[in-house]
Amino acid sequence: MRITFYHSTRFIIGMILCVSIAACSSGGKKSGSADSGTISISGAFALYPMTSKWVEEFQKQYPKIRVDVSAGGAGKGMTDALARMVDLGMFSREVSEAEAARGAWKIAVTKDAVLCTIHSDNPALAQLKSRGMKKADFQRIFLSDTAHKWSEIYPEVVADMHVFTRSDACGAAEIWGKYLGKNQESLKGIGVFGDPGMADAVKKDRLGIGYNNVGYTYDAATRKKLTGMEIVPIDINEDGQISADENIYETLDQVMAGIADGKYPSPPARPLYFVANDKPEKKEVILFLKWILTEGQKYVGEAGYVQLSPEMIREQLDKLKD
User: Fold this and answer.
1) How does pLDDT run across 35-56, given as a tens digit for each residue?
2) How many whole angstroms separate alpha carbon 96 and alpha carbon 224?
3) pLDDT single digits (tens) 109-150
4) How far apart are CA 90 and CA 200, in angstroms?
5) 68 and 40 Cβ atoms separated by less than 8 Å
6) Residue 182 CB neighbours (<10 A)
7) All domains of the chain, ordered by start, with CATH?
8) Can you give the pLDDT at residue 11?
9) Whole-prediction pTM value?
C-alpha cells in the first residue's frame, strides 16, 4: 500500500496513539507468550487417543492455544518432526541411533503395550484362554511366510489361520517384532494400515490373528474388550497353561495393572514418547509438555494408559529445564 504524507506531523502523532492503544488493549503481552499460540502434532496411532484427551483438557485451561493432532503412524510422526512440519511427533518405540544423529529429541509421557488379538469367535478360543501361547508359537506364526493352521499350536483345532501385520511404519509392529527377537521388516502376514485397520481386520475374520495397541482393543469408557475382539494370553513361564498371574486380560484395568507391575513383559509393553527436532523452543509447546507430566497424568488411567513412575516423571521434567 502506498501512503502519501501531506500532513506528516499529524500522521506521526496519530500513529503513535494507535500503537499505544493497541498495546493497552493487548494487556501488554508479548507475541508468542506461553498461554497463546499453536501446537501441531502428528504420528503414532498408539498415542493418538491419549493425546486427544490431553488436548481436550489442556484447552479448557488454555483456550488461546490451538492444538492440531493427526494420526498416521510412528514413522510419520518422526518424519514430520525431523522435517519440522510439526512441533511434536507421537512416537511408540525407542528412537534409533540414526534418528538421534539427525537431531531427534524425545520425552516419555505415558506407557502402554501391544497385545496379540483374535476374533471373539475364534475356533481355538477355549484352548487360547486355558493354555495361551508361548513366544515360540508367536515366532512360528509371525516370522514365517508359509500358510498357517490353528492345528500347528492346538492339534485338535482343525481350521486355517489368517495372519495380519501392519503395512505402515509403526511402533506397534516394531515393538511386536522386538518381542519376537526381530523387527517390523521381519513380520509376515497380510498387510493392514493403521491400528484401526488392524482391529477391523481381526474383528471381521474369525480365523484371523494380529496385534494391536491397548487403546484399540478395549473401550476406555466400559473398560471391557471391544465387541468382536479377544486377546491371546502370553504363557510367560511356558508351562502350557495360563496361571492366575498370567490371566490379566479380562478388563482394561487388569491389563493396565499388569503393565504397571511388570506382569506383562516389556517388550511388548513400552513407554510412549513425543519427539521433536531438538528440544522445542516454543513456549506453548514447553507449557503443554510440562502440563502433561504434571496435571495431565491424572487423565492417563481414564484413557486406558499407564502413568509414568514419579522417578521417570522427574527425569522427563528435567529435560524441559532451560
Assistant:
1) 889 999 999 999 999 999 999 9
2) 35
3) 999 999 999 999 999 999 999 999 999 999 999 999 899 999
4) 22
5) yes
6) 15
7) 37-112+270-318 (3.40.190.10), 113-269 (3.40.190.10)
8) 34
9) 0.85
- CA gap 111, 301 in Å, rounded: 10
Of the listed ranges 1-15, 170-184, 266-280, 305-319, the one predicted with least confidence: 1-15
Residue partners of 96: CB distance under 8 A and separation at least 6: none
* Grid coordinates belonging to 211: 496385534
Residue 309's pLDDT band (boundaries 50, 70, 90)?
A: very high
Non-local CB neighbours of 192 within 8 Å, separated by 6+ positions: 164, 165, 166, 167, 198, 201, 210
Q: Which residue has the cell 528435567?
A: 318
The answer to whether residue 91 scores a pLDDT higher than 70 is yes
Helices (H), the chain: 8-25, 48-61, 74-82, 97-101, 125-131, 135-142, 171-179, 194-204, 252-260, 283-293, 310-318
d(CA 204, CA 119): 7
Decide if 194 contacts 48 (C-beta within 8 A): no
The three grid cell numbers given for residue 114, joined into one nine-digit string? 501391544
234 within 8 A of 249, measured Cβ to Cβ: no
Rounded to whole angstroms, how far apart are CA atoms 125 and 294? 41
Eight-state DSSP code of residue 217: T
Collapsing DSSP to helix, strand or coil, 269 comes out as strand
Distance between CA 316 and CA 165 in Å, rounded? 32
| Predicted pLDDT at 33 | 56
What residues are paired with 165 via a beta bridge? Answer: 191
Q: Which amino acid is at 32?
A: G
What is the residue-averaged pLDDT of the chain? 90
Which amino acid appears at position 149 of this protein?
A: K
